[in-house]
Amino acid sequence: MLAQLPDGRSWRTALGWLTIAITATACTTTVSVPPGSSTTEPSRTAQPTPAGGTVGAVDREAMKADEQTAVTAVDAFWRRHFTEQFGQPYQGPRVAGAYKGTNGPPCGGEAASVPFNAVYCRPGDFVAWDDDLMAAGYSQIGDAWVYLIIAHEWGHAIQARLRSDRVSVAAELQADCLAGAALQGAADDGLIAVEPGDSEEIARTLAAVADDYPWTNESDHGNAEQRTSAFNTGVAGGVAACI
């Protein structure tokens, strides 16, 4: 993805057949949630274990540039459209950014920095992610991984700003929907560009976060088809379709 649209393509045109793509890319691995893990606060998104337990070769400077572009674009989208959607002022979450292993910021007095995770911490109102989580997906899937992970966690920050009756009981799927709405909206606003192959990368990312992650299971996060459907709902219908 780029910081500007070179040819007017949007996420909507690029992702029109995403549901078909996910059928071919969805994994079937079953991973149980570790005992004592929480699916409430903080909101976590973990990563598929890299082959051999190591992260593949990745240009981390380019990855960090994509992280910054994703943060800037998603925040700018919500800054432009949050008030018109919800009738209240917008204040973005703090971006704690990348951490390593367990050396991340605490969340509400508890450790939020679990290795290979991304997190929105409601008590601290911040988003953060493990640097190796981003590198694993970046090397295995592509730069769309970074955009979706950040947009999803930002979706949880948006939920925290809404009345409870506007937050779905399927909070993870709603965050996927809000991620789709934000990325499509950012493309429509000219904040990011869609490149060839991004639709496949989004499909593979949604399949991975549905099936390969130790912190996710179908009972609270949804399966690959449900997560793809939620993302596509946001792409096609915008923010209002997610509420």
Number of domains: 1
End-to-end distance: 27 Å
**Computed Rg:** 16 Å
Q: Got a strand count? A: 6
Major sheet: arrangement of strands: 1-5-6-2
Mean pLDDT: 76
Coarse morphology? globular
Count of alpha/pi helices: 9
Strand content: 5-15%
Helix content: 40-55%
Question: What structural class should be given to the helix and strand makeup?
Answer: alpha+beta
Order of helices and strands: HHEHEEEEEHHHHHH
Largest sheet: 4 strands, mixed
Detail the poorly predicted runs.
2-53, 211-220
Characterise the protein shown here.
With 243 residues, this protein is of the alpha+beta class. It has one domain. 48% of the residues lie in helices and 10% in strands. It has nine helices and six strands. It has helices at 11-14, 18-25, 60-86, 131-140, 144-160, 171-188, 198-211, 218-221, 224-237, and strands spanning 43-46, 94-99, 106-107, 110-111, 117-121, 126-130. It has a four-stranded mixed β-sheet with strand order 1-5-6-2. Strands 3-4 form a two-stranded antiparallel ribbon. Strand 3 (106-107) and strand 4 (110-111) form a beta hairpin. Helix 2 packs antiparallel against helix 9 and helix 3 packs parallel to helix 5. The longest helix has 27 residues, at 60-86. It is globular, with a radius of gyration of 16 Å. Mean pLDDT is 76; it is low at 2-53 and 211-220.
